[in-house]
Amino acid sequence: MPTKATKNAETGKSLLIVESPSKVKTIAGYLGDAYEVESSMGHIRDLPQPSELPTDMKKGPYGKFAVDVEHGFDPYYVVNPDKKKKVTELRRKLKDADALYLATDGDREGEAIAWHLMQVLKPKVPVYRLTFPEITREAIERAFGQLRELDKDLVDAQETRRILDRLYGYEISPVLWRKVSSGLSAGRVQSVATRLVVQRERERMAFVSADYWDLTGTFARPEGQDAGRGFTARLSSLNSQRVATGRDFSDRGELKSARDGGMAHLDEVAATALAAGLQDAEFTVRSLETKPYTRRPAAPFTTSTLQQEAARKLRFTSRTTMRVAQRLYENGYITYMRTDSVALSDQAINAARRQAKELYGEDFVPGKPRVYSSKSKNAQEAHEAVRPAGDSFRTPSQVRSQLSVDEYKLYELIWKRTVASQMQDAKGSTATVRLGASASSAAGELSGADAEFSASGTVITFRGFLAAYEEGKDENPETTSGKGKDEDKRLPVMAEGDALDATDVSADGHTTTPPARYTEASLVKTLDELGIGRPSTYAATISTIMDRGYVQVRGSALIPSWLAFSVVRLLEDHFTDYVDYDFTAELEDDLDRIARGEEERVKWLTGFYFGDGQKEHGLKPIVEDLGEIDARAVNSIPITDEITLRVGKFGPYLEVAGTVDPETGEITDPVRANVPLDLAPDELDAAKAQELMEIGKADGRELGVDPDSGRMIVAKDGRYGPYVTELVPEPTQDELDAIPTEYYKNGNPKPKKIEKPKPRTASLFSSMKLQDVTLEDALKLLSLPRDLGADTDGETITVQNGRYGPYLKKGSDSRSIGSEDQIFTITLEEAKAIYSQPKQRGRQAAKPPLADLGADPITEKHMVIKDGRFGPYITDGETNVTVPRAESIEQMTNARASQLLAEKRAKGPAPKKTTTRARSTKTDTKSTTAPKSKTASKAKAGTKAKATTTRKASASKK
């Protein structure tokens, strides 16, 4: 391991700091007792919220952003409240150390964390920077042989990104609060991602479908080799005109301009007639063409392609993929998972080739290693693809017992992709046959028409890399796959001029479909292709636009909310550049230039925020010159000429403007209708809007007076569906006068109030319509819950309707029943029979542990998963930690639960929120050079490395 600086007389230990506590135990095991390995638990400080600034700074230059934009964009950093205890601990351990090794991750963020540690800890011992691309003994030994200086350019790039995002969010978000809704946010990447999803939904809303028909048939040689072996062919041309398919229609449902002599567009009548005219036709082979087939393996995974493939093959969200990959990296199974590179190290190439040869044979490995190069000039990420860790790879079967289900699936995916990347091409041949005939008189007007069919098939003669891995493909999440490639399908033996028998010639109708909605995988792919943001942040970006209510998931499709339409419209109209795809990609390129030292941080930020008078307009001048923004127009979307959708404070609703009453001449009130929250924007067509407006017209309809209470019963259209309720009258003046007057201390009388009784309310059954519900129906609904009587144990059983359907209730024990109709027909005997059956797991059931995880290997306490008020959580009776949203209970392992509890214990109790922050002036970090001649052996390692100096890095405010 490393050559050491002068030893501390008492300990002789060096302090090595990594980001994650999960790495500590593994790395400490490799380094031995000569190193104290600690974790920073991620970032230790950040820009505070302006409200958290010290009182004397709130009105100064830092007051708006916690960044002084007038003086070099100087940031004001504070140690995070939950990291103060950790910082104190690191300072204490640094006092006893003879050297400090900063081993945070190798990307911009990791470099920035290392820099912040330098600024906060102020070490007086030699400092060394190193990174671990993988947590293995070999990688750690190599890292100590490649000690380097802190890269200030990477730090500047990360600091610029952080300040850029603060300026963007804090300038644009308040506009959204004022004009759309409070609590919204705008972001450099999240706003563009939201726009992509909204734009795709707009395309679907504007889409006009078109119908087209074609023919398929089954054909076979009547004699000779492969006689009777049928194959399917599709009509490709009619009278030398290509037959139109789905791709020949525009999104407006119009046939695109035909090329090569026109195009035949068949309707149902023509296609059916042609099929009849070809039933007994004499088909012959007109041409047969065979071409060699070669398919190359995909490059090893980058962060982006890993997220895409895990979504396609494993159905992982981006967040799940990154969390699982993080654990695999921290525990030494894969290399660093945040990378734009597809390159492999020499050790990895040799390991992949060696393993491919052992598992599949020498013929499956090319004579020379495959070398992949990345298109990105990115200076941020690691310099190697995501691959299995180590100089020799462990097969999935060798690590299966050590991993959770999700970890194993992802490791296997990475292992297969890496090994396959160093294997031979798949080879074979592709045959294309064209066959034709003339239609008989049964084809009517198409009698004598020349119909040509075609089919193709590929035969794989050498599987090559396909023996290990095949890349997935994006699918339309809302439709079943249509046509696929004819891979690995062999056509029967035939020759030009051969006669063929035709059977089952039939007409097939098709309708064009709108562009598929984005899935997480396809959105990640598009963002990556456009160069927007960093793949390592895509998971957080997608989570953010979901949490803000801009996007929801249906199946795997991403569906924008109407709120997202309003936000995107405002940004497109008034902040055009800041949601422009090219502009946002250029920002990322600029950050890369700063990371490479080609651009100066302050100069670039000045141009972005203030403008340069030429190319850059500047964010500040744009915000100051916005003018009047019509909030009503921003939140309005025409559905028909009369019906407009509006995005309101409580959600979207439809509105028809008031009209002039012909008798009185007065303008009537507008008619409004709620839009169901589960209705996708492209499903709100004119017919659906009219249907909802009919419900809206019935909103507030008086059904009559309840003869028992004397109160008016009305039908209402609520945000969560239609319901009936009673109107509770306001207190009369006599009732108010009867209340004694109370006075404030200043002698003024307090306003008199009467506690109004809560009105009875009941949701309509799913079979009922708001416009048709009667007073009788309403009174029956309001009579619920219905008392059925007492069970044998004396407890009363009631039946009622709930959010999740009809159910019985006895004390705290609830049981679902079959249908809403049973609410008024079920008898006490039937209810008793249901309660005599064993209780099924339900919302109101007793809550035993959801899972028993056994003893914690660290504390030896028993661990279980329980169902809490805010979701499932792991507990050992003393420490509780929420089960991460991306992880399922079924897949939670003993080791993972122990890790989560350990991380929670390491954080300690949540500290009280404070507003006072220490502030100090900027100082330069001094370089310290360790003597190159001094060496010392370390436990479990024998590598020696030269100590290096840490470059002077200007500190920022603490």
pLDDT averaged residue by residue: 86
What is the number of helical segments per DSSP (H or I, 4+ residues)?
24
Sheet with most strands: strand arrangement: 9-10-15-14-13-16
Terminal Cα span: 34 Å
Secondary-structure-based class equals alpha+beta
Tell the overall outline: globular
Number of strands: 34
Task: Give the radius of gyration.
Answer: 35 Å
Largest sheet, in brief, is:
6 strands, antiparallel, barrel
| Low-confidence blocks of residues | 1-9, 377-381, 476-486, 842-846, 913-958
The percentage helix is 25-40%
Strand content: 15-25%
Write a structural description.
- The chain has 958 residues and is of the alpha+beta class.
- Helices cover 29% and strands 20% of the residues.
- The two termini are 34 Å apart.
- The chain is built from 24 helices and 34 strands.
- A 6-stranded antiparallel beta barrel has the order 9-10-15-14-13-16. The chain has a 4-stranded parallel β-sheet with strand order 2-1-7-8. A 4-stranded antiparallel β-sheet has the order 19-20-21-22.
- The model is unreliable at 1-9, 377-381, 476-486, 842-846 and 913-958 (pLDDT under 50).
- A hairpin with a 2-residue loop joins strand 17 (551-554) and strand 18.
- Helix 5 runs parallel beside helix 17, helix 6 crosses helix 14 (535-547) and helix 6 crosses helix 15.
Quick summary of this structure?
With 958 residues, this protein is an alpha+beta fold. Helices cover 29% and strands 20% of the residues.
SSE diagram, text form:
Blueprint: E1 13-18, H1 24-31, E2 35-39, E3 45-46, E4 67-68, E5 74-75, E6 78-79, H2 84-95, E7 97-102, H3 108-121, E8 127-129, H4 137-144, H5 152-179, H6 190-206, E9 211-220, E10 231-238, E11 241-243, E12 263-264, H7 268-277, E13 283-295, H8 303-314, H9 318-330, H10 346-360, H11 396-399, H12 405-420, E14 426-438, E15 450-462, E16 499-511, H13 520-530, H14 535-547, E17 551-554, E18 557-560, H15 562-574, H16 581-595, H17 601-610, H18 619-624, H19 631-634, E19 636-638, E20 643-648, E21 651-656, E22 671-674, H20 686-697, E23 701-705, E24 712-718, E25 721-726, H21 733-737, E26 761-763, H22 775-782, E27 786-790, E28 796-802, E29 805-810, E30 813-816, H23 828-835, E31 851-855, E32 862-868, E33 871-875, E34 880-882, H24 894-907
Parallel strand pairs: 1-2, 1-7, 7-8, 11-12
Antiparallel strand pairs: 3-6, 4-5, 9-10, 9-16, 10-11, 10-15, 13-14, 13-16, 14-15, 17-18, 19-20, 20-21, 21-22, 23-24, 24-25, 25-26, 27-28, 28-29, 29-30, 31-32, 32-33, 33-34
Helix pairs in contact: 3-5, 5-16, 5-17, 6-14, 6-15, 8-13, 9-12, 9-14
